[in-house]
Sequence to fold (75 residues):
Amino acid sequence: MPTQPNTDEKNCPRVWVDDEKDEFVIQGWKASSELENKVKETGPLPDYEAVVRIPARMVQILKEACDAVERPDVR
Fold:
């Protein structure tokens, strides 16, 4: 499970790949109500969805997660 660089490995944004469901699972910081309102300006936010924030420095980790699901031996 990749985590963002320079963290304590316990309480930080993370990215998981759920191989069984072919989904990414992202743990991030809760969005403020102001940010949620900005998101809602672009369309509705259903009760079963959430807005989370992750740092831009996690781009490499997201790329690694994408690469992992594209590998033939993962499927």
Notes: The beta strands are 14-18, 23-27, 29-30, 52-53.
